[in-house]
Design goal:
Layout (H helix, E strand, L loop, with lengths): L6 H13 L5 H11 L3 H12 L4 H5 L1 E4 L2 E4 L12 H10 L5 E5 L5 H10 L3 E6 L2 H11 L5 E4 L14 E6 L14 H6 L13 H13 E11 L4 H10 L3 E7 L4 E7 L3
Parallel strand pairs: 3-4, 3-6, 4-5, 6-7
Antiparallel strand pairs: 1-2, 7-9, 8-9
Helix pairs in contact: 1-2, 5-6, 9-10
Catalytic activity: L-glutaminyl-[peptide chain release factor] + S-adenosyl-L-methionine = N(5)-methyl-L-glutaminyl-[peptide chain release factor] + S-adenosyl-L-homocysteine + H(+)
Protein name: peptide chain release factor N(5)-glutamine methyltransferase
Keywords: Methyltransferase, S-adenosyl-L-methionine, Transferase
C-alpha cells in the first residue's frame, strides 16, 4: 500500500500513534503503511495499535536476528536482548547439532540459531497451544518440529541424552513485578510466559533439575536472566551438576547463564 499513500495519510497515522503514547510513532507508521493492503485494513491496524495491542501482534510478525518471525495474539513477542542467547548458542553448537527451544513461544530462538548453523535438528516446545501453533509455522522451513506439553514432557523421548543446544528462555519476572511491566506485555502476553514465581527462578529450577538427563555430553543449556538474578541462576545450574558461567552484552543490555554438561 505504501506506494499510493499520501504524505497526509502518513502524518495522520503518526499523529494518532503519538497521541496514544507510541514513542517510535514514525517508524511504526511506516511499518503499518507498508503492511496494510488497503485503507480499511490500515484503519483497523491503527485502531488496534492505538488501543494498546503490541505492534508485532498487529503486524503479524516480529523482527528478530534479521528474520521475520510469525507471531499472533496470545504469543510472547521475542525481545531483541535475546539475541545474546542466539549468538552464544551458534558459537557453541557443533555441525548438525540437536537444537531444542524450550518454553519456545514463537520459536524465534531456535529458528535464529538454525538459520545461522545451516544444519541442525530443530525442535521447539511450549505449554501454550497458541505458541505451539505459531512455532510450527516458524520452524517448518528449517525442517523443525513443534511439540506441546510441560517442559521436557513435550519432547520425544528419543532426544534424551542427545541435545547439544538447549535454549530455554524461561519466564523470569518475579510475580509481584509483573504489574510493573509495560501494558503491551502485561495485558497481551500470556502470564505463563512472564511469571517466574516469587524470585523469578521457579521455572529455571525445574529446567535445570532435568536438563542433565537430556543434554548430550558436552551439551549446553542457555537461559536468559536479569543481572541481579544471575548469581542465583548460576547456583541453580551448578546445583544440577552443570558447569555454569555468566555472559553479558552491554549492547543488548542482556544477561544469560550457560550451563554445560561435562563429558
Amino acid at each position: 500500500m505504501s506506494a499510493s499513500v499520501s504524505p497526509d495519510t502518513e502524518s495522520v497515522v503518526v499523529r494518532r500513534l503519538r497521541a496514544a503514547g507510541c514513542v517510535f510513532a514514525e517508524d511504526e507508521a511506516r511499518l503499518l503503511l507498508s503492511e496494510a493492503r488497503d485503507a480499511g485494513e490500515l484503519a483497523a491496524m491503527v485502531a488496534r495499535r492505538v488501543a494498546g495491542d503490541p505492534l508485532e501482534h498487529v503486524l503479524g510478525w516480529a523482527g528478530f536476528c534479521g528474520l521475520r518471525i510469525a507471531v499472533e495474539p496470545g504469543v510472547f513477542v521475542p525481545r531483541q536482548r535475546s539475541e545474546l542467547l542466539v549468538r552464544e548458542a551458534a558459537a557453541l553448537a557443533a555441525p548438525g547439532a540437536v537444537v531444542v527451544d524450550l518454553c519456545c513461544g514463537s520459536g524465534a530462538l531456535g529458528v535464529a540459531v538454525a538459520s545461522l548453523l545451516g544444519e541442525a535438528e530443530l525442535h521447539a516446545a511450549d505449554l501454550e497451544p497458541a505458541a505451539v501453533r505459531c512455532a510450527s509455522r516458524n520452524v517448518a522451513p528449517f525442517g523443525g518440529h513443534a511439540h506441546q506439553g510441560d517442559l521436557f514432557e513435550a519432547l520425544p523421548p528419543r532426544l534424551r541424552g542427545r541435545i547439544g543446544i538447549l535454549l530455554s528462555n524461561v519466564p523470569y519476572v518475579p510475580t509481584e513485578e509483573i504489574a510493573l511491566m509495560p501494558p503491551e506485555a502485561r495485558d497481551h502476553e500470556p502470564r505463563l510466559a512472564l511469571d517466574g514465581g516469587t524470585d523469578g527462578l521457579a521455572v529455571l529450577r525445574r529446567v535445570a533439575a532435568a536438563a542433565p538427563g537430556w543434554l548430550a555430553p558436552g551439551g549446553h543449556l542457555l537461559v536468559e536472566t536479569s543481572r541481579r538474578q544471575a548469581p542465583g541462576a548460576v547456583e541453580t545450574l551448578a546445583g544440577a551438576g552443570l558447569l555454569a558461567r555468566v555472559v553479558t552484552s552491554a549492547e543488548l543490555d542482556a544477561t544469560a547463564v550457560i550451563g554445560t554438561r561435562q563429558s
